[in-house]
Q: What sequence folds into this?
């Protein structure tokens, strides 16, 4: 795979939130405003980029057995840097994001990329991977946050856009709204992926566990629609 | 700042010492080959090899209890990389296979003997007089095979026959086992000419039931090279060796024998598909 | 006195008046008879005739294979035309012998003679009944002599004559009880003698007052009780009948003999009378040909092997809107695709429904209304079972006791989503049995 | 889905070629071959009929705004259902009246004179999010109408809790007032006692519905008549409603005995709020409540306990919706716990 693909995969095909569904804790918690989304995204991207590069550099030096503590130390270092910098220069944002900045340490996207990519690939690719994943994460966060802020508060980046007669749909600002919106967006993205795949004549890359067919509660449900369709056709 | 450095260093020292102790005390010898082999397998955990999952197969291969080409899905390329890991020579050659439906009796060509009204599932339909097709051997067309295919390789055609996409089929055998009429079989993708019927009925009965069924006229046996096609209980059956030439399809009066282009014979494609499957 | 009824059940439209008032008519011999070998539960008997053979009525044409199997006899005199595969009312295509009657209807030597059976012992009675090819004539076709041979540790103390006939439409048992009560009761007395049972109960649903009135003097003459039962489907199912009469519960997976009860259909009792007193093997039975798809619904005495087409033709033929031919009753019978299916020992009726009457299954999702739970006489949860079966999770259906389902059809009868419940359960049972067979 | 009769549609597949005699002539299916005749539509229709008296009364009481709310809600529910099925190309179930019922129930859970967009948003969540995204009829975990209501309650608390019109038939003077439960809460917050609020509400007013509230919660008697109608028609069973109302009464009674000044009379709690609507029409919803009778009783008690806890200690004056929704989540668990015992299994194996 070329460098371009390593960068681009984070944007769509392996988008950390919508495809791989990682890092949901900050995704659900901080996306109450678009500004928060941007802040969280940039912070995570910075950590991801730096940790990926450092881990890639040190990958042959770190013994395999103690790689986890080693990664944690590296990631924690950069998170501390981000925490201190944000506190110093972007104090209101730092306050808004609160505990979720320190919690980047245990963000599974960062650990995941370190383990799955940076520890196996060269510095350039790891850098691109981290950048792509970070930007994909940021875009996703901003997308979710914009919708929540727009509908739930009538603003985007703090600017009122919905007019004075708009009654804010407060549910979206609240935690349940985050879940509902994320679920709906995941479903919609899968739809888009299926449509794209069909057009391109390839199998849609939807993880088995995101498909209703493999759900323990509704196992086999996705077949139900087809069965009904077949029944209809048989009757006609 | 000095405090931070000292604290971190001290902590690191203590932690690494502890880790070293733990590593020594609880060391579990793991054959590194297992991990490597597992990495080489497609990772779909489809069960096509008959084992619970890829890791189990990897363990067995590493222990020498399974062959390097035991994964039916991975095909030659996977077998090759596993043989490299195991350090054994791989002769290659195990031809890639795909599932094929040995029935051409769709809604236009095959007749039905009653209106079936029940569970839309072939095995259930077969409980009632063996299904509604007039031909007792034919495809019931309710898509049970499509439902069990873990790779989405089977789709039902508008005329009610399963269509298997050889590029997606991994020859995992699930559909073969699921079909109550036992009309799906695994065939090498390299084979081009197939006899798409499973009916052992006599010619007259077949003619009444289906316009594309084998009526055992033996024209194909005469046309094909010696030993390529044999009549078994009113049904022409390909033996596989020698290959049936394309010309035989033309002599079949019922259009039962057809040239089926299974498309992919280049192993490179198969490897690509397997790799993509692992990545997604 | 016990409750006289059981849990669950449904009240279908009985439609018994279609054929209920019509006396049993003897059907003339048709042009050919198709006699399938598999007419009893257990192993099918093995043919002993071949194409071209001449046979007499009552002559053995297939001999039993093992204990749970009964012999098969030629239903009339004639020539064996062929042995081939034919549709069988149980829902499969099975081998059968085709006999072309010669019209003389001659009995094989030694048969059809009155005999004073008073001195026959229990074992001799069992032998006579077995040799006559008797099976349960209510529909299950379980070999009668097997039922009459309970293991030593399970003594039978109650014999129940099942005249409930809870299936809608069917009136064969009803007519038999109304017209031949003395013969039925005498047949039952041979069963009682073979088992050494004193307590005999004749169970009839309340919707057959003339049958109850006819049976009462005949039964009471021998000291048997006649019990009028509530009209609920499936009152005539063994377990439900036993509970209604005695309060005993047949354990799940067990048999009536586990609670000391034997249930015999009244038709079987009549056949036992014929076998013991007249030395006539089972070659004919009463079949109720009914339903709105038939021109003149009737109760006919037909030879085993009479095709549904011939029987229906005798009853005036099919109406134009006939859409479904059922071998048996509409609740538990098997839909036939062909009029070539023959009357077998277990065929109590031929019901022809019009296209409008027959249920059209849809398989909409279960809305969990719980109607099936209330209807299920086995106290199962058909709703959950059908959902599991639909999703091919057969292990779960086994855990939810699908094997205890008696396939009475109450759940599907009341289902507002028109789910093919019984079909799901039959599939699940087949899969579970297949798995069990593999495990052994 | 309508009946598909072989004579109604074209021939079964495989018979369209010109043949001398039709081969597929008869219908073959598994037994049983007859049916009681009931459909999902008829069940839903009965529930709608049972709700009609209360609906009509609410129109009499609150005037045109109530009629407007009901019509918009029913139309939008059916519309969303139809639209969704068009979008995902799934065979329509819009004809089975379940969406109409959801729309009606949601309307009965709204204040009279709710703005149109509020009703639309509520039905969007009820039909699309709570029902169709979970797989449509039979698969939804939560009661759609209640999901719609709770979403509105959480998202637009002002519209949902403080704009009650007092009963003044046909829009004479639409005074905004509070529901009895709301007044009880206000009084409690203001004076530390609920008595003041209670004196203003005669039991008889509560019973016949001369009070403020959402459309469907006002007339206890008419709701009871509807519930009894459903019981008589055997559409619902008594278990859940009796357990629900009984447990509310019992629990409120215990608190009242412990501290009459702080906690209102149990009959006040039984007669106010949407308890009867919830108990008879939503705690009996087939899809989202347990199957077995014992399970229904547990479900009803759970609903009652949550309702009383929210009413007495929560931040919302009313807790019926939350009670039912919370218990909806427990339904699979309750179902698992109360499997019916197989006939005769008692003496069989113990396994």
A:
């Amino acid at each position: 795979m070329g460098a371009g693909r390593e960068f681009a995969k984070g944007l769509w095909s392996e988008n950390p939130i919508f495809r791989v569904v990682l890092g949901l804790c900050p995704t659900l918690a901080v996306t109450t405003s678009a500004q928060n989304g941007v802040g969280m995204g940039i912070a995570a991207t910075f950590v991801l980029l730096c940790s990926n590069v450092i881990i890639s550099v040190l990958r042959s030096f770190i013994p395999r057995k103690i790689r986890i503590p080693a990664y944690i130390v590296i990631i924690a270092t950069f998170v501390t840097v981000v925490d201190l910098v944000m506190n110093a220069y972007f104090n209101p944002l730092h306050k808004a994001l609160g505990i979720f900045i320190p919690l980047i340490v245990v963000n599974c996207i960062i650990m995941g990329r370190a383990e799955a990519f940076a520890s196996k690939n060269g510095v350039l690719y790891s850098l691109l991977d981290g950048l792509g994943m970070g930007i994909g994460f940021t875009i996703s966060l901003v997308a979710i946050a914009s919708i929540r802020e727009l509908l739930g508060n009538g603003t985007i980046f703090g600017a009122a856009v919905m007019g004075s007669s708009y009654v804010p749909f407060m549910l979206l600002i609240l935690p349940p709204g985050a879940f509902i919106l994320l679920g709906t967006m995941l479903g919609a993205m899968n739809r888009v992926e299926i449509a794209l795949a069909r057009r391109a004549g390839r199998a849609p890359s939807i993880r088995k566990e995101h498909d209703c067919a493999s759900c323990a509660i509704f196992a086999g449900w996705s077949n139900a629609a087809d069965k009904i369709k077949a029944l209809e056709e048989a009757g006609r | 700042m000095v405090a931070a450095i000292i604290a971190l260093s001290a902590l690191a020292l203590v932690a690494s010492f502890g880790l070293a102790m733990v590593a020594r005390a609880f060391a579990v010898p793991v054959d590194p080959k297992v991990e490597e082999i597992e990495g080489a397998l497609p990772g779909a955990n489809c069960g096509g090899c008959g084992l619970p999952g890829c890791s189990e197969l990897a363990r067995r291969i590493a222990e020498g209890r399974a062959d390097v080409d035991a994964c039916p899905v991975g095909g030659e390329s996977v077998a090759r990389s596993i043989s490299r890991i195991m350090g054994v020579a791989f002769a290659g050659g195990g031809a890639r296979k795909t599932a094929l439906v040995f029935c051409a009796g769709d809604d236009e060509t095959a007749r039905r003997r009653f209106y079936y009204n029940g569970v839309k599932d072939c095995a259930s339909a077969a409980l009632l007089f063996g299904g509604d097709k007039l031909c007792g051997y034919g495809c019931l067309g309710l898509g049970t095979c499509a439902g069990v295919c873990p790779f989405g390789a089977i789709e039902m055609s508008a005329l009610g026959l399963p269509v298997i996409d050889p590029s997606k089929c991994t020859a995992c055998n699930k559909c073969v086992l699921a079909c109550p009429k036992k009309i799906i079989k695994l065939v090498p993708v390299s084979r081009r000419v197939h006899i798409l019927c499973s009916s052992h009925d006599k010619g007259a009965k077949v003619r009444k039931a289906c316009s594309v069924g084998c009526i055992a006229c033996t024209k194909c046996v005469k046309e094909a090279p010696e030993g390529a096609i044999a009549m078994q209980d009113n049904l022409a059956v390909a033996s596989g060796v020698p290959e049936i030439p394309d010309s035989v399809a033309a002599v079949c009066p019922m259009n039962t024998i057809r040239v089926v282009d299974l498309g992919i014979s280049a192993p490179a494609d198969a490897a690509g598909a397997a790799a993509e499957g692992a990545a997604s | 006195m016990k409750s006289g009824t059981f849990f669950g059940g449904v009240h279908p439209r009985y439609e018994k008046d279609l054929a209920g008032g019509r006396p049993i008519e003897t059907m003339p011999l048709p042009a050919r008879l198709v006699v399938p070998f598999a007419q009893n539960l257990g192993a099918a008997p093995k043919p002993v005739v071949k194409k071209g053979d001449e046979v007499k009525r009552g002559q053995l044409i297939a001999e039993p294979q093992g204990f749970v199997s009964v012999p098969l006899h030629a239903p009339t005199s004639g020539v064996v035309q062929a042995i081939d595969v034919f549709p069988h009312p149980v829902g499969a295509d099975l081998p059968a012998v085709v006999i072309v009657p010669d019209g003389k209807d001659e009995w094989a030597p030694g048969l059809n003679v009155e005999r004073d059976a008073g001195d026959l012992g229990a074992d001799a009675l069992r032998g006579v009944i077995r040799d006559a090819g008797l099976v349960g004539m209510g529909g299950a076709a379980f070999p009668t002599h097997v039922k009459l041979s309970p293991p030593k540790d399970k003594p039978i103390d109650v014999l129940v004559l099942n005249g409930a006939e809870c299936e809608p439409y069917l009136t064969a048992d009803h007519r038999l009880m109304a017209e031949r009560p003395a013969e039925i009761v005498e047949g039952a007395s041979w069963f009682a003698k073979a088992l050494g049972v004193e307590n005999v109960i004749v169970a009839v649903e309340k919707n057959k007052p003339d049958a109850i009135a006819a049976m009462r003097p005949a039964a009471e003459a021998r000291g048997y009780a006649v019990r009028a039962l509530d009209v609920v489907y499936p009152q005539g199912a063994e377990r439900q009948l036993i509970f209604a009469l005695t309060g005993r519960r047949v354990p799940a997976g067990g048999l009536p003999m586990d609670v000391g009860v034997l249930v015999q259909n009244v038709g079987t009792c009549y056949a036992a009378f014929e076998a013991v007193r007249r030395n006539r093997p089972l070659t004919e039975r009463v079949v109720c040909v009914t339903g709105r798809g038939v021109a003149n619904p009737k109760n006919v005495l037909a030879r085993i092997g009479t095709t549904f087409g011939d029987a229906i033709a005798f009853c005036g033929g099919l109406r134009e809107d006939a859409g479904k031919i059922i071998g048996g009753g509409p609740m538990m019978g098997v839909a036939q695709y062909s009029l070539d299916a023959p009357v077998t020992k277990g065929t109590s009726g031929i019901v022809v429904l019009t296209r409008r009457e027959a249920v059209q299954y849809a398989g909409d999702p279960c809305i969990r209304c719980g109607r099936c739970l209330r209807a299920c006489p086995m106290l199962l949860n058909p709703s959950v079972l059908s959902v599991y079966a639909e999703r091919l999770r057969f292990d779960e259906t086994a855990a939810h006791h699908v094997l205890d389902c008696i396939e009475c059809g109450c759940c599907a009868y009341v289902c507002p989503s028109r789910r093919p419940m019984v079909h799901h359960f039959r599939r699940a049972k087949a899969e579970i049995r297949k798995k069990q067979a593999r495990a052994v | 889905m309508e009946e598909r009769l072989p004579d109604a549609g074209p021939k079964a597949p495989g018979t369209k070629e010109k043949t001398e005699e039709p081969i597929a002539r008869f219908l073959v299916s598994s037994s049983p071959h007859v049916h009681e005749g009931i459909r999902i539509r008829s069940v839903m229709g009965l529930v709608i009929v049972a709700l009609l008296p209360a609906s009509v009364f609410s129109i009499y009481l609150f005037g045109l705004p109530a009629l407007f709310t009901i019509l918009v809600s029913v139309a939008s529910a059916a519309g969303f259902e139809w639209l969704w099925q068009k979008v995902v190309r799934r065979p329509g179930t819009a004809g089975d009246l379940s969406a109409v019922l959801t729309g009606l129930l949601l309307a009965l859970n709204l204040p009279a004179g709710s703005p149109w967009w509020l009703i639309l948003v509520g039905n969007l969540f009820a039909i699309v999010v709570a029902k169709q995204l979970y797989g449509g009829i039979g698969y939804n975990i939560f009661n759609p109408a209640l999901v719609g209501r709770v979403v509105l309650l959480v998202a637009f608390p002002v519209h949902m809790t403080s704009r009650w019109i007092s009963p003044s038939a046909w829009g004479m003077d639409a005074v905004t007032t509070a529901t009895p439960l709301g007044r009880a809460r206000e009084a409690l917050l203001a004076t530390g006692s609920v008595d003041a609020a209670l004196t203003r509400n005669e039991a008889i007013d509560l019973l016949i519905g001369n009070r403020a509230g959402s459309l469907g919660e006002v007339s206890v008697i008419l709701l009871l008549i509807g519930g009894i109608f459903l019981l008589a028609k055997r559409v619902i069973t008594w278990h859940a409603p009796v357990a629900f109302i009984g447990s509310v009464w019992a629990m409120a009674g215990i608190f009242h005995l412990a501290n009459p000044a702080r906690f209102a009379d149990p009959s006040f709690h039984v007669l106010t709020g949407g308890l009867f609507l919830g108990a008879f029409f939503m705690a009996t919803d087939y899809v989202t409540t347990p199957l077995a009778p014992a399970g229904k009783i547990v479900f009803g008690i759970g609903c009652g306990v949550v309702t009383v806890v929210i009413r007495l200690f929560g931040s919302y004056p009313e807790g019926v919706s939350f009670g039912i929704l919370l218990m909806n989540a427990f339904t699979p668990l309750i179902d698992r716990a109360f499997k019916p015992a197989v006939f005769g299994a008692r003496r069989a194996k113990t396994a």
Summary: The first strand of chain D starts at residue 27 and ends at 28.
